[in-house]
Amino acid sequence: MNILSLFGKRGESASVAKNRLQILLAHERADDGSDAVLISSLREDILAVVAKRVDIDPDSVRLEMDRSGDVTTLGIDIELPAAKAS
Amino acid sequence: MISSTLYAAKRRSSTALVRDKKLHNLFLLPASQTRDKDALTEEGVASVINELRMYFDWVICDSPAGIERGATLAMRHADEAIIVSNPEVSSVRDCDRIIGLLDAKTKVAEDGGRMPKHLMITRYDTDRAKTGDMLATDDVVDILSVPLIGVVPESKDVLKASNVGLPVTLSDENSPPAKAYMEATRRLLGENIPVTIPEEKKSLFGKLFKGRAA
Ligand SMILES: Nc1ncnc2c1ncn2[C@@H]1O[C@H](COP(=O)(O)OP(=O)(O)OP(=O)(O)O)[C@@H](O)[C@H]1O
Ligand SMILES: [Mg+2]
To answer: CB of A44 within 8 A of CB of A76?
Structure first.
């Protein structure tokens, strides 16, 4: 047994990081911007719906599309104002 | 930079500028956190920057984190850009997106020009890069294809400086991060000096100890 394997192989995590980045960025750079347009329209729609009921800061609606690998996910994150003490 | 203070500055000329206590040729336009973040319009930012251009050699717009509206507003009227990245996947990824925006959503780009870009890598740990546990400067430069303007080492001096409310370049100008920032500044000003990674002077004992603990 290689003694180094006791401590994990040298050089592994940085090269994994570089690989991951290359794959990730290849996907993202191939994107022609249509995702960004879709996201911004979705964001406006969602904001309009939520704003009908809750008084929210437009910046508090965040959407993120992730196209890494075979699945595409859409993350929606909405921050509501703190409950008023009254 | 992205604040309603900026907006006020637009209306009342440069009166919102605050002179730095230590550096008398440095002025700050503080970002106040107000509820109405949209008080800042693109035209407002443009006119403030154009006004400041007349009085200052350099107008530095600090961009908020991420790739949201704040960042696009800050970069919009820039003549050149410094992209700051940690040697980490998420940070490099964000930088790649920012580079895309710099080449598409800025005034320079829209006018058919090319935004000059500089890459600054910060919180760098030479030892960890050497043992392969941190992306090396060459990896990051490779991936982003932007020339290096400086490498700032990870250093305890940064927190020490921030504790006493000073930039690290003033709190200890001989510290490795201070040297890195000063060198990067000289490169930005056009000097042609090779990029080095300033390091802590280690005693022999420190070296041995560090070698063992790695
Ligand atoms: N070279 C360094 N060595 C050690 N710590 C550092 C170094 N550079 C920055 N830090 C620490 O990292 C933290 C974030 O730094 P800084 O505020 O410069 O980052 P930022 O990218 O501007 O963050 P934000 O996106 O929140 O504006 C600070 O707490 C600082 O002390
Ligand atoms: Mg910051």
So the answer is: no
